[in-house]
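[scheduler] slot 2 assigned
[scheduler] job type: sequence-to-structure, two independent chains
[scheduler] chain ordering preserved from manifest
[runner] begin chain α
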Amino acid sequence: MCARLVLSCYLIVSTCFGLLQTQSFFDDSDFRCEERRDKKIAAKLQSFEVKIKALEDRIQNIDLKNQQEISKTNDRVSTLEEKFQNSTRQNDSVRLMGKEFYLVFPPLFYDGGDSYCVLYVVSTSLGFCTVALPILTKRYNLELKPGESQLFLPASYMALENQMEGKGVHIECNVYVNVYAAKHDKFTTTVFLVLPIHSRFHYEYKYIPSLESMPVSAQFSHLYNSTLAIVSSGDHNIVTVSLNLTESESIVVNNQTYWSNESIRLTMNKFESIVISHAGDLTGSSVSSIDPVFVATGNNCGRLKTDNACSGMFSVLPVDDSHTKAHFDTEHIFITPFFYPFLRGYKIRILSKTDNYRIQYIIGNESKPEVLFVQRDFVDIDVESNVPVFIRTSRFATVTVITPGKNNTDGIGAAFMLYVPEQAVLLSEYHFIVPDLNTTSYVTLISRNASQLRLDDRNVDGDSILTYDINAEQYEVIALPIQPGYHIARNVLKEPFSLYVYGKQKPSLGYGYVAGFNVRT
């Protein structure tokens, strides 16, 4: 029995041992296939993540380099654009007059019901201008494109005589522009270049050219008075007009009479204007002010002869800063225009701040120059024919051409006043307009060599005449008809030349103005 018991125990222990031995032959992880697969996938993913991270780092470095290169490129482009814009602005500041202007339209000569004023703004780029008309409490916004923008104004905006008014027109632009203004009524037409306001204090205008016209009869003499127009750009501006009159002459302004060697002292606010009308000759008078002012001179009916034809004239004057210029007592050269053949002579008026200077001039192709030693306020040169005149002065001077407005054989009178810039301030490129005033218009160009000139990208071809300076250096003066609208004249070698615009209309209307010049020189 004991043997059976021992055998049974043995079998039980053996069986248990066998079972235990069978389980120890295997690893539990061998039965977890999914877990093993997940671990392998995780290991691969981790490997991929490392590779992806490395790729991301490389991409980030490449992006950073690209961004740096793009930034450098943008900086270079921005710099180039800025340089181009600055160059364009600088070019515009040379080719065009300015950004801020004041003006006043001269008085009506006679209102036939169809009188009007026009502003012409010329730009070479996109931009805008605001035009303020304080007396009408109106403000116009002009969008500028390369070319010409126009603004028509009512006849009521023309100034009255010898009255302080708020009829100053203020133009302010965000780009450089040229501004031309025109006035048209039943019997007179005038167009003038508007000069920009300089941003400096204390203005002084010497050399005011004027004239004494010849009325048809004494009872209508007031219709033919000369004018002096002033507009203030600041409030409480002290404006002084120092009169140069003969002893028997006087001027009445604001019900007060002023005589020779007296001064008209005005306190003017911003936009205020006054047009001083006078029957005498104010040549040699001066205007000075604290704040910048607009100054123009002219005549309601610029008749220098006794016949019936007349036309208004109006010419702005640049600031006289000759007393601050070192070259005041050096030579200055001027050439007056040859006009398209409808004029028969004109008057040249030359003024300087002081006398005791010398003038040399040649009319047309004359071989011998005339020499004058000036001992008076101004000098007149009467040119009987339609030829240019070369002028050399030993001192800084103002030269003005006044056409007579007389009836010629073709029944046309065209009176106008031209400011003649000296050769040192001329431009090599002009952007200008020819007004559409039912007139026939012309231009005169004066250059060393006309073959270098281009008008609207075409060669200049017109009636021409040669004139010579005292050293026998040749100038070529060309006059030709031109259509209304926007035009460009340039010298391909960028050499300076003169440009004048003028026109006629039967029986007596005429206008004329200088297209532009460098006011910053």
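[runner] end chain α
[runner] begin chain β
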Amino acid sequence: MALSGGDSTLAQQDREEEIISSNNNNGFLDQSEPNTSLSSFINSRLNSSTPRSRQSSPANSPRPGPSRFSVADRSRDSQNDSSFHGFNLFGCLWDQKKQKSRQRAKRKVGRMWYGKKRVKGLVILICVLGVFLLVDWIMLFRLQNHGLHPNARSSRNSASVSPRLLQKGWKKFGKGKSAHKGIYGRMLALAAHALAEGQNKPEPKDLWLEPFIPASSWKPCADQHNWEPNEGKNGYILVTANGGMNQQRVAVCNAVVLARLLNATLVVPKFLYSSVWKDVSQFSDIYQEEHFINYLSPDIRIVEELPKELQSLDLESIGSIVTDEDIRKEAKPSFYLKNVLPILLKNGVVHFLGFGNRLAFDPIPFQLQRLRCRCNFHALQFAPKIQETGALLLQRLRQHEGHPGGPLDHYLVGSYAEAFKRQNQSHPKKASRYLALHLRYEIDMVAHSLCEFGGGEEERKELEAYREIHFPALTLLKKTTKLPSPQELRSEGLCPLTPEESILMLAALGFNRKTRIFVAGSQIYGGRSRLIALTNLYPKLVTKENLLSTTELEPFANFSSQLAALDYIGCAAADAFAMTDSGSQLSSLVSGFRIYYGGGKMATIRPNKRRLASIFTKNSTIEWRIFEQRVRKAVRQTKHVQTRPKGRSVYRYPRCKECMCRTE
């Protein structure tokens, strides 16, 4: 039966009173329950799917309010008694009107009370939800910047955080700066999670150690020699070495050996200006020239410059200039005796222009090989200004605390090591350990590798343009020869590790978030934004630019080779050293020095890039635990005491009878 307008209004009022009573009995923001927590209230609200109007029990059912039937009954009673109250009919009607007015007033008050109650409840609910959202935002922010909370160590808690959530949290760190994570966003998020969970776990026992017993049996002995000095009477050798500091160093050592082989006098080498390195530094700017001449005097004769009568010769016109194009890589000593010695005897001078890796490691006479080691490990010491700043760098890497030093420190920074040691004797604290990481990821290396690194078409165009300017021969080779594809190069381990791959390797090996990491070669392709992924996972990551002030670095500004010497010092003296490209000259020279002077105590991480490449290709699906296991196995297999393989560099593998003597 349809309700009239007035009946509809009354029914609506009845339902409102029923809802009010129902809500009161359900404890909706019940003020009589002071011990009810906000969190339990939120959970009860979020977890309940039952409408509030159905949650009350029959015992607590709301009392029915006044109905339209009760009003009608009273009206009929009044009409039946009209004979008795006829004279007061209008009074009765007035009483009914007053009663209805009182009822409406009560209902209005009820509605006002309920409205206030509801507004108050909504305000409290909004506040509670606001607090809940604030806490949730804080937890997400901590995840983005520091991983999970340090106490979140249980597998149950870790399982509740999905990789999707971690990736979502990874995207917004760095105050608006996005990390260049390329294809490794998922893996970097998992690494952040693992580092946050494991920051209180002990690191693997062998992480900072070499296999000491077999390594310590090798002792430096390249300083020993048993021949008469070379008179250098066959003429003069000029060398203009190309490349960066490390390539130039190799060229100098080869020139020393060649001078002994040809019985020639060596003029202090000069360094060729490079459009890549853009450095005008010469020998005396990087090395101690006097020490170099005097130390090698029992082996060869060295002078600072050509005699005046030879300086005026047009060496090109008389055929005394020999370039790298004239000599094949790693040419044997017999090549020089056959082709170069006649020119030297005829003209009295030969100028080697370039002279990179142009002398073989095998076969070569024992004493010549030892001379090569003697030059590299003993004769070439850095200039005083580099040693002084290098000693300051080491002091700050070791956090201003005393360090026992040793032969390697003395070789790298000379007397400045003792000076800083004396300054720190008043603070006899245990020195802090640090890991050095050489990121060989400068644009020249990236472009020359012919690899791709996830930057798409923009990256390909940029690297191709760089190759056309700086590596025209390589560009021509690409056009005329079918070369391996970037995918094939990567699968063969011929691509340098990216910064993201390097940091994932360190995290998988077990270095925790507290590890102090010194990054060499920080002028990486893609700019400093590429370091964001590293600093997010390892907050104690530093470079020489962080540790040294602008004033302290000013003498080295625009001298890339001198800056490289500071990186060399920081890497060589580290407690552990991680290389990312085994073909890098700096990594090879540093790892060799750590073997030669380290006494079997200086760990070096040499990644097997072919093995790592097969692991990284599964970055979108592999679980972190499996990733850890496979990376540790791949790196551990390279961490053994190895004697120099035939034909390999004595600078990188000095464990051979020419450079080191075995005590067993």
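[runner] end chain β
[qc] chain β: The mean pLDDT is 78.
[scheduler] slot 2 released
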